[in-house]
Write the structure tokens for this entry.
Amino acid sequence: MSHHPASAPRREIINELYFTGQGDPRHKCVAIGYHRDEPVVYKFDTVDLPQGTRTTVTYNEQSVVAFFDWALAVHLGSVIKGADRAPMTDLVRPGSMPTARMFESGRGGKEKFEWRRVGDKHPYGYELFSLEPESRIGRYDPTPRELPKIGRAYALLEYGFHEDNLIRDALLALCLNRWIDWRGM
């Protein structure tokens, strides 16, 4: 990321998250990088519990930001954010085209966004769009790359927004989009 002196025109800061792990979107998936010029780490870990299968999503190793409770281990169940429980399908509603899935987030939780799958071969790339007004605000590129201090990353997410709840919700929705497409559901 570049920083500009006060006298230089300010360009939009592009946030970057690199994905490491084995490629399973819901288990041992780590997104590490920068959000608003601050280092961040999001982790997705899934375990089988006596009452079912649960994915825990943590932020910076300390805060749990969400849980996915899976139905019958592999089917969409519910998402828990704080005290709120909702169907996972709320994060992958039908979008504006056959390769798009919509979710709500942003200020007040009522702005509409969608992940649009790019290309026709797995692993898929995705673009994140704000729908009101329509504009591309992020891009998930599944091209593997080697990074100093991190090692091998299997994907990069670049985005130009700064709301904490939106990046959380975008990552949750991206996880589900990748899981659905990976499993051919």
